[in-house]
Amino acid sequence: MGLGIVRWALSASLFSPDRTAAAAGLEETLLVMHHWRTNDGLSIGLSDRSVQDVVQRYGTPLYLYDLSKLRQQFLAISRVLGKDYAIHYSLKANNNLTISAELARLGCRADVSSEGELLIVSAAGFPPAGTIVTGPGKTPSLIKAALEHGAGLMTVESMTEARRVNLEAQRLGRCQRVLLRVNPARKPAGHGLAIATGITKFGVDEDQAPNVMEQVRSLRNIRCVGIQIFSESNILSADTLARHHVDTVAIAQRLRDRGFPIEIVDFGGGIGVPYRPAERPFDLERYASTTHELAINHDFQFILELGRYLVAESGTYLTRVLDIKQSYGQTIVIVDGGVNHLFRPRLLHANALLEVIGKREPPSQTVSIHGPLPSPEDCLVDRLALPPLDVGDLLAIRNCGAYGLSHGLLGFVSHPMPAEVVVDGDRHRLARERGSPADALMRQRP
């Protein structure tokens, strides 16, 4: 049995009951584990001793990804949405090839925003016809690569971009299906991360959409078959996200009523995960009641682009204590990993979901945990109650599978990239090699 991990300052109300999930075509039935800590080790399913073995082999800082948790998330959302919704994995959340390949194996589709992500989805085995290319400012090179890849859908975010896609499609002798990204007039009512409301670089304003769609009709090598609206991210309220969907469908229906051939409604993403002790998990069952009603009452094809919901809770960041000191009465802990690897979760205060490997003592001190970067901004978590710490202790920060490494400040101070390791049951393997100091000179010339 492992030495145990103590998770401080987290409420027991965050626990959700175990349940068994299954999906057709899978060779195994997956037993869903609690995400939160157990008495014997990390939520990823490894005992403390096994975690120490992983760290001894691969070093720190280190990302661990739990494939069983990844499968659990995909199967759970697939079950509640049913066949009326296509789920696309948004690689911007985490571009790890092993994670992408596992989701492709499960039948997930892909959402990409760069040529690099196109290469990853191709290597991972996502079907090209199930790939959607999104994001503003698509270059001719990206558009050409997407067309040659055979991407089933592409969003257009302006008339200029629509003409650019049409031109590249004409050169290749293709007719590309596109979705018009619309910036809705109504502001989101939730408390998630606002993405496209009011003045924004994303899409065309709602009142401009009919005129843009009319112009797109004149282009011979693209066909606008629907709309995409993505207003808010990391929503924890099922009712709030459901209202977004209802509003989006209403916009699509108004455009259809004006004679535009709207077949597809892309809701973007939005399903959140808990990042703070007081936050509760997103209620999938409550959310499903609205999604089913929309599917029954409308004959649109629906798309969800999910990143954070699928991968956030599968990821754990491991870092080791290098130094402990006092500064005007405050205990400062220096660790070997910083915001160069873990910038986005810090902004969301996710790093408070921190565990100390192998210590059962009650919290006895309040500490601030900082990384090794020569910047005051390199603070992973400020004033957290922890048990007594020693140099060499191993810390685990949970819910870092989304917008962790893929959103890091990787070039700052030229520290190497951390290794990435995937865990499946009691097995683990290297998914991405650790960088080296020599990487700082890559592609540079004196």
From TrEMBL:
**EC numbers, comma separated:** 4.1.1.20
Transmembrane residue ranges: none
Name of a matching Pfam family:
Orn_Arg_deC_N
The biological processes this protein is annotated with in GO are: lysine biosynthetic process via diaminopimelate
Q: Where does the record place the Orn/DAP/Arg decarboxylase 2 N-terminal domain? A: 68-312
Q: Which domain of life is it from?
A: Bacteria
Instruction: Write the protein's name.
Output: Putative Diaminopimelate decarboxylase
- UniProt entry tagged with the keyword Ion transport: no
Question: Molecular function terms in GO for this entry?
Answer: diaminopimelate decarboxylase activity
Cofactors: pyridoxal 5'-phosphate
Which keywords accompany this UniProt record? Decarboxylase, Lyase, Pyridoxal phosphate
Q: Which Gene3D superfamilies is this protein grouped with?
A: Alanine racemase, Lyase, Ornithine Decarboxylase, Chain A, domain 1
